[in-house]
Specification:
By secondary structure, the chain is of the alpha/beta class. Helix content is 62%, strand content 6%. A 5-stranded parallel beta sheet has the order 5-4-3-6-7, sandwiched between helices. Strand 4 (535-542), helix 21 and strand 5 form a beta-alpha-beta unit. Helix 6 runs antiparallel to helix 14 (340-356), helix 6 packs across helix 15 (374-390) and helix 6 (104-136) packs across helix 19.
Length: 658
């Protein structure tokens, strides 16, 4: 049943030779890797307005300048990462750039920042999408967390089916969102040009300023503008995902990835600038606490505000009951939720690279039966779902944790690219090639300076609002990865073969553990005898005189040619008695090998595991730590285990057939 359910959710397994079929054309790669930066325009303007209205309406005149700064930064970052795509097409992105040019330590800092960023991408994107659903259907507000977690589970299932299949599914909502937003922006700007500017439902509302946020001048005003700018920089999240996913593109991979990144940058800038312009034209009001709005209809303590993009859709297309309003809301909700797909593709790829470099468990480098990195997908879903639950699906609370990791990776990546171009200059003398390198280095140097400045701004303005959690999480991840690498290096040194070839044990002493004389015991005795050990002993623990007497009688009646050794166990501790015997045997023969054979039942139902093999599990757990001791499980299949065999193997199989 469980296997059938897995096939229903994930699909049929794909063979390794079909990996090439999972490569993406540009039209599918855009929604797969760029849905995050494309969708973030839906809430980036909202975050700018939310900060500026802390002082009432007096500081909204700063919004165009803040938005312009975000546009410039986005353009520089896109140009910078196009250089990364061409220089490092293997898919390591920021991690590979920092590792190769700034050292492994810098690479791990970038990796920890990106991992935090990917987790936050899932949490924030899904939460923002659910906010837009609630804007259209307010009754869902009381089920916010449950709806969020349901969407995370759905995204997980779709990504477990494979990159190409999930990409096809997610392509339609992405292109619908792009078309819908551009149609809304163009329509709204045309209405404005013809003298019928759209008016938001909140345009007539006043906003009470937060205490201490009125009359700001000098440095206080600058800090408010910088905080709004750092919030607006959410528009840049996910911009590096394409550089991490170059191997997933169809050939020519670098050119296809660079083209996709250019298209993503152009669309993101156009939509963000258009939404911001419309929001200012329509006089949108948006605050964190609806009770600060004078004129807000309904109960400000329980009724949610409509999002900025919902207010704009209603203003441009004629109300909240129009077809286009619901189309925009549906497309926005879908793209925001599906924006998490960027992380579902980026996180497993990064984790696989880190696992290959022995900084994460090796299981993360293993592809599932649909050729996706299934373990990374599941881990990402669990961590993001936990964050959504802990922060109650609040975009405003979650987004404070978001930007720090993004700009840490941006800054170190661009600094690494500057060093990369310096080395290239030293290796090339062709004037045309050197001019091209100088231009690329200038782009990356500008990107490094700007993103470093933003990193400082984000750290200062968001630290007390929740970013301190990221400051804690990144060093913890860094230390964890260094610890994993130390462990793997230590194990590799210990496992390195010694010179001299294979070392044979002097003698082999076989010990078969016996609880009673039945078929599994006879099989274990037969298997141990077939290995031709130097000595063979059957070992049992004396729990009661009656049981031991019955066992001896059966032993003699069958004439079993193996000596039966009985260990006293006055405290009924089977594990302790066996360990005492094995330890004493090893002490007597320190140069010899001791092989312990444990008969075990093989059952087919989960509840049967609770009824059998518990003593065997405890024994194995202890015996595995004894040097010079080998442990062998000898299985005996009960009838119930037949249900776990392939159908073609069931016919003619009787109980106990190994």
């Amino acid at each position: 049943m469980s296997i059938s359910l897995k096939r229903l959710i994930v699909g049929r397994p794909l063979s390794s030779d079909r990996l090439g079929e999972q490569m993406l054309p540009k039209r599918i790669a855009l929604p797969v890797f760029a849905s995050d930066p494309l969708s973030s325009v839906a809430y980036a303007t909202q975050e700018i307005l939310l900060v500026l209205t802390l002082g009432g309406l007096a500081y909204l005149h700063l919004a165009p300048w803040v938005a312009a700064a975000v546009v410039v930064l986005l353009a520089v970052v896109v140009l910078s990462y196009r250089q990364v795509v061409h220089a490092y097409p293997s898919g390591g992105g920021s991690y590979e750039v920092a590792s190769r040019n700034l050292g492994p330590g810098a690479g791990l800092v970038v990796a920890s920042a990106l991992m935090v960023d990917y987790v936050m991408t899932v949490a924030v994107s899904v939460a923002a999408g659910v906010d837009n659903i609630i804007s259209a259907v307010p009754a869902l507000g009381e089920h916010r967390v449950a709806v969020n977690l349901a969407f995370v589970a759905l995204l997980t299932a779709m990504n477990l089916r494979g990159v190409r299949e999930s990409g096809r599914l997610f392509a339609v909502p992405t292109y619908l969102f792009i078309a819908g937003v551009l149609a809304m922006v163009v329509t709204g700007l045309l209405q404005t040009a013809f003298g019928h500017a759209p008016v938001a439902e909140s345009a007539g509302w006043e906003v009470h300023a937060e205490p201490g946020e009125t009359g700001l001048t000098g440095m206080a005003l600058v800090l408010l503008a910088l905080r709004a700018f750092s919030s607006g920089c959410t528009a840049l999240t996910g911009a590096e995902a394409i550089s991490n996913g170059v191997p997933a593109f169809r050939p020519p991979k670098p050119r296809s990835a660079a083209t996709t990144m250019a298209v993503m940058g152009g669309l993101s800038i156009s939509m963000f600038a258009g939404i911001t312009a419309l929001a200012l034209i329509a006089d949108v009001r948006y605050v964190e606490d609806a009770c600060r709005l004078v004129g807000f209809p309904g109960n400000c303590a329980t009724d949610p505000q409509r999002t900025v993009i919902a207010q704009l859709a209603a203003a441009v297309f004629g109300g909240t009951d129009t077809v286009m309003f619901f189309c925009i809301q549906a497309a926005t909700a879908l793209i925001l939720i599906l924006a998490a797909n960027t992380a579902f593709n980026g996180f497993p790829l990064l984790a696989a690279i880190l696992a290959e470099h022995r900084y994460l468990p090796r299981q993360l480098h293993t592809r599932g039966d649909r050729l996706a990195f299934s373990n990374g997908i599941v881990i990402l879903a669990v961590v993001a779902g936990t964050l959504i639950y802990a922060f109650e699906g609040s975009v405003t609370r979650l987004i404070q944790l978001y930007i720090l990791g993004v700009f840490t990776s941006f800054t170190l990546s661009q600094a690494g690219m500057v060093r990369h171009w310096n080395r290239e200059l030293a290796d090339h003398t062709d004037p045309v090639r050197r001019r091209r390198i100088h231009r690329s280095r200038a782009i990356n140097a500008l990107g490094a300076c700007l993103t470093a400045l933003v990193l400082v701004v984000v750290l200062v303005t968001k630290f007390s609002h929740g970013a301190y959690l990221v400051v804690i999480a990144m060093p913890v991840l860094y230390a964890m990865m260094r610890g994993v690498r130390r462990h793997y290096d230590l194990v590799a040194r210990e496992l390195r073969p010694q010179p001299g070839g294979i070392v044979l044990p002097s003698r082999i002493h076989a010990v078969v553990l016996v609880s009673q004389l039945h078929q599994p015991t006879l099989r274990a005795l037969g298997y141990a005898s077939a290995t031709r050990p130097d000595t063979l002993t059957a070992l049992t623990a004396e729990i009661s005189d009656e049981e031991v007497s019955a066992l001896r009688a059966d032993w003699e009646e069958r004439g079993i040619p193996v000596p039966l050794t009985v260990m006293a166990s006055p405290y009924r501790d089977i594990t302790g008695s066996v360990l005492e015997y094995i330890t004493g045997l090893h002490r007597e023969h320190p140069q010899d090998l001791i092989a312990v054979y444990i008969p075990e039942y093989v059952v087919g139902h989960w509840w049967e595991h609770l009824l059998h093999n518990q003593s065997a599990l405890r024994l194995k757990a202890r015996l595995l730590f004894l040097r010079g001791v080998m442990v062998t499980s000898v299985p005996w299949q009960l009838n119930s285990s037949d249900r776990m065999q392939p159908r073609e193997d069931r016919r003619g199989a009787g109980a106990g057939v190994g």
